[in-house]
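Handout, section 4.2: multi-component inputs.
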Amino acid sequence: MQISSRFTIALHIFTCVDVFKDEYKVTSEFLAGSINTNPVIIRKILSQLKNAGLITVARGTGGIKLTRELSEITFFDVYEAIGAVENGDLFHFHDSPNPQCPVGRNIHALLDGKLKAIQGAMEDEMRKYTLLDLRSGMTEFLAEENK
Amino acid sequence: MQISSRFTIALHIFTCVDVFKDEYKVTSEFLAGSINTNPVIIRKILSQLKNAGLITVARGTGGIKLTRELSEITFFDVYEAIGAVENGDLFHFHDSPNPQCPVGRNIHALLDGKLKAIQGAMEDEMRKYTLLDLRSGMTEFLAEENK
DNA sequence: AAGATTTGTAAGTGCAACGGTTACATTCTG
DNA sequence: CAGAATGTAACCGTTGCACTTACAAATCTT
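Output:
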């Protein structure tokens, strides 16, 4: 299993919004064009980002605005907003191990801390990258193209 | 999305094999009892662990043996054996972003390294835990129960 | 050699999430 | 009001997961 493409799509959206904000009206239609998917998919993701308080979306007129600086939004914020992982648990624990079995009734408590540490390592790394990193990286790529 | 319960089941299996190896014949049936699932599920997972070279399984007579010391098998080895993540990629990248769009044609290259770093942080943490840690943790839990 | 036990595997079921799509009400601007 | 955009509900097809039944292949015991 993989973490939903909604996560990478969200990052793609943020990049587009900033890159094109002065040049085009960045609507769900426009974004769907760059991402090559359906506008409704985009709107659903925008909805999640809005509910998480990362952006505002203007109805009718269209237009997406960040509520914070690019440097103040990390990959982790986006990952959380998207709900990329059910109940916040990366690992799916098999339910109801046999309580009659000594191993069965203790395995959950035993594994829990270690699995949390593993997931935590991933999430901590996610906190290191901001949307500003993404934006400046894209600027470099585009400059390279225009050489 | 979550990482398949086959991963936690595999860890459960390893724990049982070691805890019960002198006391019972540890068959797929026996394991299914502790884990509370179907023997065929267990056999499939055993098959993957075997293909990865972590264990040998005796047909007919039953019996599971590790090919290395408990301390020589990490959570990462198990995770890899199980194929918990498609193509080895934790993140699902939306396919075919629009190559006509400057962002679309560069987003993949831009994100790739960062996503790999995030996945790498998780996998490195996985390498820190061995089956021996699991075994000794279980021993402690059981000692606690018998107090 | 026969019978019992166990693994290996194919085939099929039900379910849930994902990505996609159509359709339409709602909201805002001009 | 007309036009443009978002918000959502409803539905589809596909895929992977967990589970189950069934049976062939391998191995041990007697």
